[in-house]
Amino acid sequence: MSSVLRQFYYKKDKLREGKKEMLWGIRRFLSNFRSIFRRPFGRGSIYRLERLKSVVRMKENGENRSEKNGLGVDKGIRKYEKRKLNARSQKAYKFFNVKNILIILILIFTFIFVHFSGYSTKSLYFSIFIYIGVTLYLLIVERFFEKVEVQEEIKNIKNDREREHNVFLERVKEIEDLEKNQIEHIFLKDSEDYDMKIWKVGRATSLLIGKQSPRNRVDIDVSEGIYSNLVSRAHGILNRVNGIWYYEDLGSQNGSGIERSLDKRKMKLKKNIPVKVESGDIIYLATTKILLK
């Protein structure tokens, strides 16, 4: 009797332990299940998620940027040539041209000749000779002509590319010359060629040169010059058009002159006619000298 009770209690304890383990397992599962939904709402999780997204975006942008920067000149040239060849090879190819029609006629007449010859040995040898000749023509001669045409196309493409490159270099040179000849400062000189006054041009597109007065406002006031009494109140004007500077005498009483920086040649300017000026040129307002630099 005691052994039966002992076994009964033993089984009861086992069932109780099994229930506890099962309850603990269910509890752990539910806690993990709740953490799945609870984790993204935490501040740290959102930060990590946004951080991962930003890292992925930065990597993608970096790869795209590296791919763009890695595209060398030679690769660009090859792509350009391939694009040109594809554009030129898109022309409609006519199958029924003179050569193909002649080949088809030769094959048809050869077959007819063999048929009417009763498939004799001579006719078969003749047909084999014809077929071999046509095959060799297609394999050698046609391939040679195709190769010559492709080489000619590549040569034309290279010539076009060199021509475009030369045009590009000329354009770059023009832009460099234009930037080199831009006027950034205007200097008022004295009789000993010292700087008396300096004006910064900046982004100005029009500068009126003359003498300042209560009734006459100018951008470049040369009243401090030694011979400023010979300068009119509105003596001349500098205008910038498409990046190029022009000077125009506004009908002054004593006139204007210019000294070129390239050959030091002096010339008197006509009134109300714009003249192109560059960096290094000297404009004379009567005898007052201003340097463009």
UniProtKB/TrEMBL annotation:
Chain ranges passing through the membrane: 98-118, 124-145
Domain of life from the UniProt record: Bacteria
Location of the FHA domain: 207-259
Pfam families associated with the record: FHA
Protein's name in the database: FHA domain-containing protein
InterPro entries listed in its UniProt record: FHA_dom (IPR000253), SMAD_FHA_dom_sf (IPR008984)
Keyword Transmembrane helix: yes
PROSITE patterns reported in the protein's UniProt record: FHA_DOMAIN
Signal peptide (residue range): none
Swiss-Prot/TrEMBL keywords: Membrane, Transmembrane, Transmembrane helix
